[in-house]
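Q: Hi! First time doing this. I have a protein sequence and I read that you can turn it into a structure. Is that right? Here it is:
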Amino acid sequence: MRHKILLPVDGSESSVRAAHHVASIAKCMKDLEVHLINVQPLGDDWMVRRMIKRDELAKMEQEWAESAIAPIRAVLGTTGVACVDHVVQGEVAETIARLARELACDQIVMGTRGHGALRDLFLGSVAIKVLHLANVPVTLVK
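A: Yes, that's right. Below is the predicted 3D structure, encoded as structure tokens:
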């Protein structure tokens, strides 16, 4: 039976540590599928729209996402685990919980401190929101 893990990433060391944890899980599970999610903040602020064209912003967000996902793929690449990338916009905690439900993930594994969109991810803020919103177990990696 396939086990699906959602792994939020933002390029931080905490995300890399979470990826190492998922890699250790992959050694024990033969049929593991990992969904990497990079959440970009909504770029609909009027100042953003005034200064940056929509297609330029989309290109910048894709570059930010790729730079966040690349080190995670390097860690997981050694395990042979199947990975699927998701780059989405939205509020971080709600987006993580929603995608876990939509993808029918069995678990969320995430770092406790990040940067960028996940900068405030520590117990008491986004992590607590994810714990409350998620309908699957959440593993926080310090």
